[in-house]
Amino acid sequence: MSSRPDRAAISRLVLTQFRNHGRLELETGGLPVVLSGANGAGKTNILEAISLLGPGRGLRGAELGEVSRAGAEGGPWTVSAVVETGAGVEHRIGIGLEPGEGGRRLARIDGRNAGPKDLAEAVRLIWMTPAHDRLFAGPAAERRKFLDRLVFAAIPEQAAVASGYERAMRERARLLADEAPDRRWLSVLEAEMAANAVALAVARIEAVDGLQAAIDGRAESAFPKAILSLDGLLEARLRAGEGAADLEDWFAGHLSGVRLRDAAAGRALDGPHRTDLSARHAGNGMDAAQCSTGEQKALVTGLVLAQAHRIAGGVSGGFAGDEGPNPLVLLDEAAAHFDPARRAGLCEALLALPGQAWLTGTDDSQFEGFGAAAARFAVAPGAVARLA
Fold this sequence. Notes:
Blueprint (H helix, E strand, L loop, with lengths): L8 E10 L2 E7 L5 E4 L6 H9 L26 E7 L5 E8 L7 E5 L2 E2 L2 H7 L2 E4 L11 H15 L2 H20 L6 H35 L8 E6 L1 H7 L4 H14 L1 H7 L10 E6 L11 H21 L14 E4 L8 H12 L5 E5 L13 E6 L2 E4 L2
Parallel strand pairs: 3-12, 3-13, 8-11, 11-12
Antiparallel strand pairs: 1-2, 1-4, 4-5, 5-6, 6-7, 9-10, 13-14
Helix pairs in contact: 3-5, 4-5, 5-7, 5-9
């Protein structure tokens, strides 16, 4: 059992035929987990396997068939985990690929078949990869995806809202490409887009406001405070005081009025799929996009830590009672671009989290700040060994 009874954790993880791991078993004792080894050893593969315990395609966004171990010894993959909830309860979660070409994902929780919603409720996941190291200098789509991952970890049902919006938007674009599109069906799709778009915008605003309050309220630490803002058509109207129901009506009418424009473009030019997240470094006032890679990574890490604490504390509208579930935090190449002081601060911050953290790095010495309070493993191709 975990040495921290209030920490949700994976106490046992088993991978079979997953990426370069034919068979892997890890016993963590519920502690934070450090995976160290050379590039290409399979560290990120382990984090990816954990990320697939939730709904969706995981931290790499791979197709299900892509993660099966290659070669003559390969076969359908499985991932299973014993997850401690932090309340003296364990859940056994197993996922895998159905045998045969074009197999679908199978999932079970405590021996019963499970769907995406069940997985989302059972395991809350937040992750950060090297792709996020310069998040604020990269494309807006990556920032939206990152923000929505934070939102979905707190309120899983928002993932279905986002999917509904994307689905209706794609179908509308397909209809607009017809010479004589069905106007009645276009109106139905635009109403569906509007309802989902406003719900998504509201959730994003609540997430950003909650994160900002958490950031402003915490003590100074190794991670700089960020000043966050959202730039989006619907978010701006909500900020200006427009009611959600009125905004739905307005956006549905707007979409109807710009059909010719969107048909010419081949896509919808307005909506939450165009929203951007921006940040400034509160300490020096610099736009995050202009900060160094290390400072950008520190700002993003601060957002991950803040959201993990928010979820555990019970995000408004998401949970009954005063406390929520403890999320698992996955940090790939966690210490890259950090100096020794910030690496020590990272270990301290992760030990204070109510949920378990899994970290990777090329050198175990990067995580000396954990002392004996982490389970440390050396990862080599096809082999994982516990470090003393």
